[in-house]
Amino acid sequence: MGQLSERRVLVTGGAGFLGTHLCERLLRDGCDVLCVDNFFSATKGNVLHLLDNPRFELLRHDVTFPLFVEVDEIFNLACPASPIHYQVDPVQTTKTSVHGAINMLGLAKRVKAKIFQASTSEVYGDPQEHPQPESYWGNVNPIGPRSCYDEGKRCAETLFFDYHRQHKLRIKVARIFNTYGPYMHRNDGRVVSNFIVQALRNEPITVYGSGKQTRSFCYVDDLIEGIVRLMHSSDAVTGPLNLGNTAEYPVLMLAEKIIELTGSRSQIVLHPLPVDDPQQRRPDITQAEKLLDWRPQIALEEGLRRTIAYFAQILSA
Ligand code: NAD
Ligand code: UDP
Description:
The radius of gyration is 19 Å and the shape is globular. The chain has nine helices and 13 strands. α1 links the parallel β1 (8-12) and β2. The protein is α/β, with parallel strands linked by helices. The protein has a seven-stranded parallel beta sheet with strand order 3-2-1-4-5-6-11, sandwiched between helices. The structure holds nicotinamide-adenine-dinucleotide and uridine-5'-diphosphate (UDP). Uridine-5'-diphosphate binds next to α5 and β8.
């Protein structure tokens, strides 16, 4: 750590949904934050309110190219997370995960920084084991439309563990399950923001497939707390650690809940199920509970209320 400054922290993908929350949290914790983003799936708008803070710096940069900065910690979040966005340019998505990981791990090695990787429940693919513990190796199609993301993230995990074994890097890998909340883009395309925006506009709610497929939704504040605890845990705790909420809901039930909470006049319409859409997903968080003393505190209804309030405000602005 430098003598003259606070803990210097790099957040890649820092202007995205999770990145913005993480930058805010790290600033509150007294860190110097360097936010790096190429604005592929976010805009500067998310972090505008941080630009006046002397401990915050924003850099437009694509992590598929090397970066030379001096930092103590790296949170590698850069990668579009919504299926709609990561499938726009699948080659770039794989490059972001794989070349991005190589570049950030190279940087971490050079400056001896501790490095966090935002991995994903997608490493389990369409899981045949339920709920999913970290020991499950997954059921991933290597050549489908979701593969650029799933396999890119799997390869990034491989790189993290090889840098750990080969170069003794201090790594922290979290497998994040569906997370939602304020700062999601209104056109993000993921289910919670889609349904809330549609409901607030009284437009049809687009349920894909029968809506019987399930997800487990974690409110963003809970997730950020888990990420910070993981980063501060002992070096022996490398992960991969599942971080997510264990309450599991069919997508159709989520649509009905959002209509109820918004008092919307929207009708539910069924659309075709996207290729390889996982049928079920729920984290086994025993490891995170044991190693981080972490478990989500915010139930779906409360999290949805907060997220609805955010979208109501930005849609009326
Ligand atoms: P997001 O799309 O809102 O944020 C990703 C950010 O990365 C965006 O700001 C985007 O512009 C930036 N980015 C993309 N490619 C880049 C590149 N090549 N160089 C620099 N910046 C780049 O998504 P999010 O939900 O905030 O996700 C953040 C991370 O967490 C991602 O790595 C994602 O895979 C992971 N994750 C998120 C969830 C979730 O439910 N939110 C679940 C699992 C994993
Ligand atoms: N989904 C939906 N309507 C939408 C967007 C998504 O029914 O407008 C479904 C999608 O098919 C999936 C689930 O909601 O079964 C979660 O999708 P999301 O894109 O949020 O994330 P995923 O977990 O699939 O990466």
